[in-house]
Amino acid sequence: MGLITGAAALGPASRILAQTSTTNGVGVTPIVTQPFMEACPIMPVKAPVATGLGCENSLSLTNSVTLQPMTMAGPLKANVPFEGERTAIGTYHQRYAQFAPQNAYELHVKETKQKFHPAIPATPVWGFDGTFPGPTFKARYQKPGAPSANLVRFYNELPSNHVGFGIPSVTTHLHNAHTAPESDGNPSNFFGPGTCWDNHYPNVLAGFSTGPFAPNGDPNETLGTCWYHDHRQDFTAQNVYAGLEGFYLLFDNLDCDNEADPAGLHLPSGKYDVPLMFNDKVFNIDGSLAYDFFSLDGILGDKLCVNGKVQPYMNVERRKYRFRMLNGGPSRVYAFGMSDGSAMMQIANDGNLLPMPVSRGVIKNPLLPDINDYIVTGVAERHDIIIDFSKYGPNTRVYLVNWAEQINGAQPTGKIAKTSTPLLQFRVGNLPLVADQSVIPNAASLGAIGRTTMRDLPTVDLPNVAQNRSWKFERVNGAWVINGNIFDANVVSASVQRNTSEVWTLQGGSGWWHPVHIHFEEHQILSRNGVPFALPYEGRKDVCLLRGGETAVLYFRFRDWLGKYPMHCHNVVHEDHAMMIRWDLVDPNAAPTV
């Protein structure tokens, strides 16, 4: 659908297919850009429009366009009781009263123009609040006596007469947050210009409703670096490429956004805690974004962007920084390292703190260099690292670089490139060492707060697994499929019983890499290609990167909510054509939900 509609829409518009050259999905921008010309933007923290109980009532139902409340896709079972409450605009949300919103936000999805580089004319983009990336959310987990649920109203203010790539109907997914399906940004729950949608984010730990961790949830399931993005069925790649992405950060008493807190982990915080989104783009001569509709393997851009700037620089002080690195897509795989070959200390992946920091980015055997010595990152994967700039002298220039060799959108070669590509230049300040209360957690610092790990992994209970399922990701007759089928939003490929655990086996086809994302619940990787998998930098994840022909076995627990969720490849070109399935979380003893 995305291919047919996009191609049919070609015409005199701000964003059209007009690349000067493309080979194997690799675009060429007819503009020369000198690197490190502009500072890396830091996205503003989103402020609520209201706080406290009843805050949702203060949300405006009108704005610059006529907005009508948007109900959930499909019929509401209004005459059947179920786990849910009615919101201010008539949409049902499960457990809405239990997790009553304390903060209300408005996000406006609209078109604007943005400068990616001084040499590139202003580029039309779609953005949350008109920026790419969108504003950063900072939220806290629910805890006894201090509820912190959020209600976010998304206003679709995109032009209804848009032509070119992308479609002006949207649905926003808070990537793998523990939310009910009506707030998950399901691909089929899209809404058009002039309407709005409420997502209810309870900011609650998994396992809150039953079992040993009720009513507060399992602290070992705590998330940190999340992100939100458009998930419109058939058009995710195009709408996200247009700019619909942003960060959503969660904090608790350990990862507490305060490096001076005596009870916390003392991780770099405030302005020293920096989200970084990596994307690759192709630009036309007029500055507009070029999108290759016809490369269904995946698309690569020749302009590498960080937080919406082409190869920017960042001024840093001589102290420790935390960088939350997100591969925002659409198809490229990165292998992150430092230009001087020094180590980066990884503390989290896919939003989850590891048990202990792990040194990454140093080649272990120069005679047999391995790309896995770097931080290999598929689309949607996140890796939090700490870099200590106090080891560098004043006025040093050092670079975050990409070492992955990739010549088409289908997959990297799996080899280290002959030369690295600089992504971000760090300009170390010329002042003396500055005060730094942060630490890279170790046995001593953890012992001081009564811990032996940053975060323990949840327990894996294999004897009580209720179901084993297998999923094959492959290409059949030119289409991307799972178990031989393209996506149909009305077909339920798996009905998973609530409050059970399952083992899922994912098998990739040879010749392509698939970053597989399963919505809602995280997994732990038990094995890859039959070998028990215990890499210290893996831990819990929400994306499993299948490398050509690889088989991975994952363990899940399914709890708390009921309803529909997807699983898909997060190479978003594969997702749209149409490597995705729907699975439902069910409970035959519970009343139905939307």
CATH architecture of the domain at 274-448: Sandwich
Q: What form results from the Cα inertia axes?
A: globular
What percent of residues are in strands?
A: 35-45%
- CATH fold name of the domain at 274-448: Immunoglobulin-like
How many strands appear in the DSSP assignment?
Answer: 38
Contiguous low-pLDDT stretches (5 residues minimum) are 1-21, 61-91
Structural class by secondary-structure content? mainly beta
Tell me the CATH superfamily of the domain at 274-448: Cupredoxins -  blue copper proteins
Compute the gyration radius: what is it? 23 Å
| Count of alpha/pi helices | 4
Strand order of the largest sheet: 17-16-15-19-24-21-22
What's the CATH C level of the domain at 274-448? Mainly Beta
User: Termini, distance in Å?
Assistant: 26 Å
Taking all residues together, what is the mean pLDDT?
88
Helix content: under 10%
The major β-sheet equals: 7 strands, mixed
Commentary on this structure:
The protein is mainly β and 594 residues long. Among the domains are: 274-448, Sandwich (Immunoglobulin-like), CATH 2.60.40; 463-586, Immunoglobulin-like, CATH 2.60.40. Helix content is 4%, strand content 36%. The strands form eight sheets. It has a seven-stranded mixed β-sheet with strand order 17-16-15-19-24-21-22, with no helix packed on it. Strands 27, 28, 30, 32, 33, 34 and 36 form a seven-stranded mixed β-sheet that branches. Strands 3, 4, 7, 8, 10 and 12 form a six-stranded mixed β-sheet that branches. Strand 5 and strand 6 form a beta hairpin. The longest helix is centred in the N-terminal third of the chain and has 7 residues, at 2-8. The model is unreliable at 1-21 and 61-91 (pLDDT under 50).
